[in-house]
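Good morning,

Attaching, inline, the backbone tokens for the sequence recovery test we're adding to the shared suite. The designed sequence is right after.
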């Protein structure tokens, strides 16, 4: 099958109106990360480079372009919380992404309620239906293929406590679509939601083998 393709080398530029990378690798879950400095200053910020990387123990991570307050706080205290961003919380989540002076509380800026975590000294977003309390496992400065350091830091943390609203559990099974999570897409403003109408199921080949 012959396809007409746009091809490029990223280091030479993409030649398009907007870099397509974020749109191709997407939609992406949002790392809505709360942290706290050693002196007690709260911080809350969303990161679109985020995911889960291990089951047992559960390890999640996000990547920050630049040494931002979130990274600085986590490097200092080795603790953070991930808060699920939902459609109902899209506007305050976006408000928490504003570039504000160091030390300004994004919880207050976005009109959100901070509640203490149980295992780490970080505030959780009370309005979020799911929160993961985390302890830092690795803080990695990314490099390019030539070994040059990038101004990009990846933060990995072990999930040490999980909080889930009970109405998202049906017969003990978490209902992904019912939580109404939002996902980041490409361009300056695109987000997506998910729904049960778009769900489909596939069994892994190993799971189909008898016995």
């Amino acid at each position: 099958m012959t396809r007409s393709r746009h091809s490029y080398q990223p280091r030479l530029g993409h030649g398009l109106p907007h870099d397509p990378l974020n749109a191709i690798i997407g939609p992406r879950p949002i790392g809505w990360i709360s942290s706290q400095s050693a002196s007690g200053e709260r911080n809350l910020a969303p990161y679109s480079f985020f995911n889960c990387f291990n089951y047992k123990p559960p390890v999640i991570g996000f990547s920050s372009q630049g040494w931002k307050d979130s990274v600085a706080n986590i490097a200092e205290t080795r603790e953070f919380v991930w808060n699920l961003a939902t459609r109902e919380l899209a506007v305050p989540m976006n408000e928490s992404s504003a570039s504000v002076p160091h030390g300004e509380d994004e919880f207050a800026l976005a009109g959100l309620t901070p509640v203490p975590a149980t295992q780490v000294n970080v505030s959780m977003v009370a309005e979020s239906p799911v929160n993961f309390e985390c302890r830092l496992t690795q803080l990695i400065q990314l490099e390019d293929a030539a070994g040059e350091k990038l101004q990009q830091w990846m933060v990995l943390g072990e999930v040490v406590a999980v909080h889930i609203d009970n109405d998202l559990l049906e017969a003990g099974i978490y209902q992904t679509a019912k939580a109404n999570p939002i996902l980041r897409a490409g361009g300056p403003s695109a987000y997506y939601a998910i729904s049960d109408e778009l769900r489909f199921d596939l069994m892994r080949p190993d799971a189909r083998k008898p016995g």
